[in-house]
Amino acid sequence: MSDTRDDTGGTTTKVVLISVVAAIGGFLFGYDTSVINGAVGAITEQFGLSDLLSGFAVSCALLGAALGAWFAGRIADRYGRKIVMIVGAALFGVSAVGSAFAFGVWDLVVWRFVGGVGVGVASVIAPTYIAEVAPARIRGRLASLQQLAITVGIFVALLSNAFIANSAGGAAESAWFGWDAWRWMFLVEVVPAVVWGLLALEIPESPRYLVAQGETQKAGQVLKEVLGTRSLDAVQRKVSDIRKSLQREDKPSLRDLRGPKLGLLPIVWVGILLSVFQQAVGINVIFYYSTVLWQAVGFQEQDAFTTSVITSVTNVVVTFIAIATVDKIGRKPLLLAGSAGMVVSLTAMAISFAQATGPVDDPSLPQPWGTVAVIAANLYVISFGATWGPVVWVLLGEMFPNRIRAAGLAVAAAAQWLANFAVSTTFPALAGIGLQVAYGLYATLALLSLVFVWRAVRETKGRELEEMGAEEPARAG
């Protein structure tokens, strides 16, 4: 293999800015998945929903996300990364307007599903694009912007919902122009959706995609800008390496993922299992159902906003730990440390809730177990937020060979959203048995994630994308 060093003198402002633009998709991802939480109570009341329909109005977006993720890679390989970002922005905008004007639960479900498709698209295209434009030496830090943007999106949705609800006197009350406050909660999302779409028009196309389309001159210009090098030879070497890694006679498709082991290439299974484990450890339970925990340890219901803000801010802050360390420590060590931290904290939560008194649906924790549970819950958020939250997106964006990157990430992201849906919908049933059962199960899955990372995940720190998958066998038949 030829020399693939960047030959750069430093990080270019250009690559940081275009990575930030791509990461706005992550912001919308986080905002869209969280905005419903502030509105669901008012929607349930206004439309007279059963618990089942109310829950489906929330979870239908996850099914849309799985669909969006599944098709995003194929569209990105055919029409380009920029087009997919613009489509994603349009989906978010349409969903926001449609949800705001919903006249019944079923059209609201449709618009939430459309927004979910946008979430799935953003979950694929942002890490793909950032990985393909970022220099290897800072790729982990730039790719971590995706998770940072997601956590900021969650936090902004929380603050926006609170501001609108407080201004109106409640989510079900009338706000500006006589509109229900919960409708404004959805409509606000139009602003970042339009911003993302407009900025996506201004950024360059991925150089890997341009080479795949035979536009090597344009690819060279983009590489020169993002790598910050004046060396024409370095750019030509990079273009040549990309071209070699993409050599094929047919157009890219999901068929490229086929392999000898259970029908898929081993690297694809690694990506799928990374995605599933990221959700299987129960992180979204903390964010979707945190009120149960806080009330069990003595907080009043009106304190739920304060405790949710603390958890959300913690999630944002600890993401900076990953940004600061992912290119120094590496991906695999961070995942191993995160799994170990989650095993300990989730086990402590399971043991704490095993001491609970009162009915299963309204448990109460005696001291010191209440304090132990609160500390363990926050350590769990830290363990996940500093490692598995951002690092899985980093790995998914860079671990696949060039020829299957978008398709591989699409399948892995679709699996992640289905796992999210499964965990979120099964938690109430597990909690009905006892929260110690739920947290005990997640602790076990965290332990399995540690074993999986130790045995199956390969370090990608500092490696060029053209080196990824060099050890993979050629696609069968």
Q: What's the SSE blueprint?
A:
Blueprint: H1 13-47, H2 51-79, H3 81-100, H4 105-133, H5 139-143, H6 145-168, H7 181-187, H8 190-200, H9 207-212, H10 216-227, H11 232-245, H12 266-280, H13 283-288, H14 290-296, H15 304-325, H16 331-353, H17 369-398, H18 405-433, H19 435-456
Molecular structure report:
Helices cover 73% and strands 0% of the residues. The protein has helices at residues 13-47, 51-79, 81-100, 105-133, 139-143, 145-168, 181-187, 190-200, 207-212, 216-227, 232-245, 266-280, 283-288, 290-296, 304-325, 331-353, 369-398, 405-433, 435-456. It has 477 residues and is an all-alpha fold. It is built from 19 helices and no strands. The longest helix is centred in the first third of the chain and has 35 residues, at 13-47. The protein folds into two domains: 1-247, MFS general substrate transporter like domains (Growth Hormone, Chain: A, Up-down Bundle), CATH 1.20.1250.20; 258-458, Growth Hormone, Chain: A (Up-down Bundle), CATH 1.20.1250. Helix 1 (13-47) runs parallel beside helix 3 (81-100) and helix 15 packs across helix 17 (369-398).
